[in-house]
Structures are given as C-alpha cells and as structure tokens.
Amino acid sequence: MKRHNFSAGPCVLPGSVLQKASEAVINFDNGLSLLEISHRSKPFVDIMENARALALELLGLEGKGYKALFLQGGASTQFLMVALNMLEKRAGYLNTGTWSDKAIKEARIYDDIYEVASSKDANYNYIPKGYDIPSDYDYFHCTSNNTIFGTQMKEFPNAPIPMVCDMSSDIFSRQLDFSKFDIIYAGAQKNMGPAGTTLVVIKEDVLGKVSRKIPSMMDYKVHISKSSMFNTPPVFAVYTSMLTLEWLKGLGGISAIEKENEKKAQLIYSEIDLNPLFKGFATKADRSTMNATFTLANEDLKETFETMVKEAGINGLNGHRSVGGYRASMYNALTLESVGVLVDVMSELERKA
Ligand code: PLP
Fold first, then answer.
1. Is 247 labeled as catalytic in the residue annotation?
2. Which structural domain, as residue segments, surrounds residue 34?
3. Is the CB of 175 under 6 A from ligand 1?
C-alpha cells in the first residue's frame, strides 16, 4: 500500500533521491560504498562543494558574501554556536515556540537575552507583531516556522542589527529575500535529507566581532576556513542533501515548490475550516504551510478517525504533546496527492458521523 508520510521529521524524501542515495551506500566509487571512501577524496570533496554551492544558488545568495556550511550537532547546536559567535552584550529574541524558547535558554548561558515579544501567553498559537528591535543589540533571532505549533512568520522585521533565523522546518519551501538574514540555520531532516547535518548560511562580515575565545568546533570562522571539512563530515547526510537540492533545482527551484506547497496548505486548511468535526490550532493569519495543527471537535470520534487514517496508509499524523490533536507536516517532497488522501479521510469522517 502507498504510504503517505506526514511526519514532522525526519521527513519524507523524494523517491529518486532515496534510490540514488541507497545505490551510493552499496557502490559509489569503483565498488566502494560512499560510507567507505575517504572524505578527503576528490569524489566527496566535490559533493561537499556542490552541496554548498547549490544551497547558496537556490537561496539566491551566490556572490553576496555568504558561505554555506554543513555542520553536525543539529539545529540545537546552532542555538549555542550563534550565541558564542555573535553575542557580546545583549541580543533580542522573538519567542514563538518551543524551539525559540530553547534557543533563548542556550544563549542566556553566555549573556543577556531580551525577548522582544512572545506568544507563550496563548500556547504559541500566533506570531507576535509590532515589536521593537533595539539598534544597539548584537543581533536579532527568530524562528521562521514553528514546527510544533504550526505557525509561520509571513513577514520579517527590518532589523537594524544582524538577523539570525532558525529555518529548520521551512527552508527551501518558500521564496523569501534571504539576503535580509545574516545567519540562517536549518537541520537537514525536514526539507533536505536525513538527520545528521545542519545547513548554516553565514554572511561572513558579521563574524569576528566578539571578544571571547571560541572553541574551534564552535567557531564559524574555523569551519569556513576549512571549507566545511574541519572534522570528518557526515558524508551520507551531506550527499543525500545534495541530491535533494539537485532535485529541487530540477523542479524549478524554490518558487516552483512554493506553488505546490501553497496548494497543499490550501487543501488541508479549507477542509479544517469547512469540516465542523475539526478545529485549527494556529491563528489563521499565521498558519504554517509546512505543519498544519488541528484537533477533533469531538474526542469521541478519535478512535474511528485514527483507524481510518491508518487504513489509508497515513503515517506520522499525531500532534506534539504540547498541542495535542494532529499535525499534518507537508514538507517539500510530500505530494498534493497525499494531502488529498488525508482530506478525503477527514470528509469521509464527516459523512459517517
Ligand atoms: N528548530 C526547529 C524549528 C525545529 O523544528 C527543530 C526540530 O524539530 C529544531 C530546531 C531542533 O533540531 P535538531 O533536532 O536538529 O537539533
């Protein structure tokens, strides 16, 4: 049976990417597996360089003073790397969910953090607006898409200071002016590849302004100077990410996938709004195109709905424990057809109830 993977991550990957990646595990270069070759060998150095270049190209950041790195430790390590590399006195953070909150907690270890605004008061079901960003702070940090709560920033402030953004759950899904940001980071495991690598895109001229000593593995400048090969890179995750970025480029890039993502989001949200058995969690204006969060209006239907979901081959629909209900994650490689299957189950429930 065809499976429809709505998991919040690790994500769904295109079939062609999985096929090529699995072949490379068996035989990549003259009978050797991708996992057996030296990361310093030309075939892998080419992969790393291609992946870095493709990331910048797709984001429209080539030739604009940015460097792309594929690092390890997940987006969670970026919470502290950003602070170590950028925080001298004080930074401003927008608190829009669990991941922003964690980023704030890590940065607070190093210095003073000011929450410019927070939506914690409403269990993060909206994106705060109309806040000020002080011009004498070191940087402003925000989370473009809140994976757990299903909210997404539709607009970004014009910060008078460097902007840092955690784009883990919506990178490469929609066209933005990426040059607004000085540091963008994203764990691979939503829209790029398997867990194990994190893309970090940095405008080089924002670095080197803090007085603290930074351990080498935590220092962006060290990673840049070593072309993202300071230590042994996660070869499989980088290779698979490169294949996904090639796939995306072949489709027509971010603007092409954005159209598909909008269609998918429109399909699910119109069902949530029209079907009286479901209630959306996030405020309408701030709804995410990547993660749609919703609950059942009548919990008595839980078992029936979940059985129908399972029978339809739908996977990964459970909501995060801090929201409850359901979360349909619709990353780039999930098809409109899969969203249609879920919507059919939801409307079938209405007919049955
Ligand atoms: N930031 C966001 C927006 C996320 O969705 C996640 C994970 O889901 C993280 C950070 C943490 O990423 P990692 O598990 O790679 O550390």
1. no
2. 15-251
3. no
